[in-house]
UniProtKB/TrEMBL annotation:
Keywords: DNA-binding, Transcription, Transcription regulation. It holds the Pfam family GntR. GO terms for molecular function: DNA binding; DNA-binding transcription factor activity. CDD domains: WHTH_GntR. SUPFAM superfamilies: GntR ligand-binding domain-like (SSF48008), Winged helix' DNA-binding domain (SSF46785). It comes from the Bacteria. InterPro entries: GntR_C, TF_FadR/GntR_C, Tscrpt_reg_HTH_GntR, WH-like_DNA-bd_sf, WH_DNA-bd_sf. This is GntR family transcriptional regulator. Residues 21-88 form the HTH gntR-type domain.
Length: 237
């Protein structure tokens, strides 16, 4: 592709994105979301002049946003030239998954060790929202966002929200691969059952059981990485 894809209308009007918070941060969030969701697939060429015009911003905050996304490993920025969405790197997928399992199993161990009823109440509320839309394919993106909210709530329960942000920043390649996985009924059930098992184990104050539940919940994330790479070779390094 030779140009950026269509920008959401709410962000393209001049001044609107600048009217709320930090412009560069908003650009970072929106462009990164579009890359993760594969709206901007690997190999897409982003022309900075066109992006600036469509978002209605100057080159300075756009440059800062692109540099931050490059640090996440999702872009290759060529100064005075073009910017290209990076291809998915299998090695980085496994590295991010290793980090996620290590951190999240430790999080649930701490939650099982301490009194976590309030955090678990929040987690169960998220599960109920997921169940309410589980059968609606039109709500798949919302379901996935709630999945992220569930894990963020666990990190919040032990006071380590920044670690959840770190995982997200380092998991761009993993997150893109997850978007390529089929979210059929079996996958949806696996996610919901995993969340419920994690909560039940934490409430039972069984640290080993909580860690095992989290490890099982995350186990399917990378199992079909080689098959997805073979199926979508243009998307992978």
């Amino acid at each position: 592709m030779s140009k950026a894809r269509e920008i959401p209308a709410g962000l393209s009007r001049t001044g609107e994105i600048a009217g709320h918070g930090n412009v560069a941060s908003q650009l970072y969030d929106d462009l990164r979301r579009r890359i993760i969701s594969l709206d901007l697939p690997p190999g897409t060429v982003l022309l900075r002049a066109e992006l600036a015009a469509e978002y209605g911003v100057s080159q300075t905050p756009l440059r800062e946003a692109l540099q931050r996304i490059e640090q996440d490993g999702l872009l290759h920025v060529h100064p005075q030239s073009k910017t290209v969405v990076s291809k998915i790197d299998i090695a980085q997928i496994y590295e991010a998954h290793f980090m996620r399992v290590a951190l999240e199993t430790e999080v649930v161990r701490h939650l099982a060790h301490q009194s976590s009823k309030e955090t678990m109440a929040d987690a169960m509320a998220i599960i109920r929202m997921q169940e309410a839309i589980a059968d609606d394919q039109d709500q798949l993106r919302t379901f996935q966002e709630l999945d992220d909210s569930f894990h963020r709530a666990l990190f919040g329960g032990v006071g380590h929200q920044r670690l959840h942000q770190l995982i997200n920043a380092r998991s761009g390649h993993l997150s893109r691969m997850r978007k390529m996985q089929p979210h059929d009924d079996r996958k949806i059930r696996h996610i919901l059952d995993g969340h419920k098992s994690i909560v039940a184990a934490i409430l039972s104050e069984d640290e080993d059981k909580a860690m095992a539940a989290m490890r099982a919940h995350l186990s399917e994330t990378v199992t079909n990485a080689p098959q997805l790479r073979d199926k979508h070779r243009d998307f992978f390094t």
